Task: structure prediction
Amino acid sequence: MNIATKAALYNALLFPGWGQIYLKDYKKGTAIIVAVIAAILSILFSVIQTTKTLLKISPFKKGTVTLEAVVKLSVTSLKQLNLSYISPLLLFILLLWIFSMIDAYLRGKKEMAKINTAADPESTSPEV
Result:
């Protein structure tokens, strides 16, 4: 598997930004990873706040915390989320993921071209 494909797969299968890290573009890789983690934490914070609000309104009674009750609370809190806030964050994550895969693939192709020209310097020299 060549460098370009491997870098794109790291982004697709692991996490956005890992392909850039693999290709030693640490600044761009770190920026992508931090941006995605910030968006995920923001969504998580919103879910936690909604769940806390629901628990204040109708708290669990002592001894009634079951898996079914927790699942019901989770479903209710997901229904109460502000989608006008969550949707742009999910779209941002998706677009950043796609960007990081394409960027890693293209950068990997450039790296492969450098390796190939370094290995065969006569192939790029002009004929005299």
Helices lie at 3-13, 18-22, 26-57, 67-79, 83-119. Residues 3-111 form one domain. The radius of gyration is 23 Å.
